Amino acid sequence: MPHHPQDKKRAVNRLRRIRGQAEALERAITDGQDCAAVLQQIAAMRGAVNGLMRDVMESHLRDSFSHESCDNPQHQALQQKLDEAVSLVKSYIK
């Protein structure tokens, strides 16, 4: 779970958008909209949920493995590895 206020706010905002998408999807299905339109809305929701997952995972990784800035070469190497891991996660969760 995001611990920093700006991360929490971003997560809540994403959740609100996802809720709006879910409500729109429910209306589309209830109203009998075309399958292509419904599938497009589902894909948009999937993308929104994946974006939320990326943000929460990045926040978790940074909170778990990141420390205050330090000039120690080992710390800098750890930060670089953390940045690489976050990039890798972001590339796979789209």
From TrEMBL:
<keyword id="KW-0238">DNA-binding</keyword>
<dbReference type="InterPro" id="IPR038390">
    <property type="entry name" value="Metal_Tscrpt_repr_sf"/>
</dbReference>
<dbReference type="InterPro" id="IPR003735">
    <property type="entry name" value="Metal_Tscrpt_repr"/>
</dbReference>
<dbReference type="Pfam" id="PF02583">
    <property type="entry name" value="Trns_repr_metal"/>
</dbReference>
<comment type="similarity">
    <text>Belongs to the FrmR/RcnR family.</text>
</comment>
<dbReference type="GO" id="GO:0045892">
    <property type="term" value="P:negative regulation of DNA-templated transcription"/>
</dbReference>
<dbReference type="GO" id="GO:0046872">
    <property type="term" value="F:metal ion binding"/>
</dbReference>
<protein>
    <submittedName>
        <fullName>DNA-binding FrmR family transcriptional regulator</fullName>
    </submittedName>
</protein>
<dbReference type="GO" id="GO:0003677">
    <property type="term" value="F:DNA binding"/>
</dbReference>
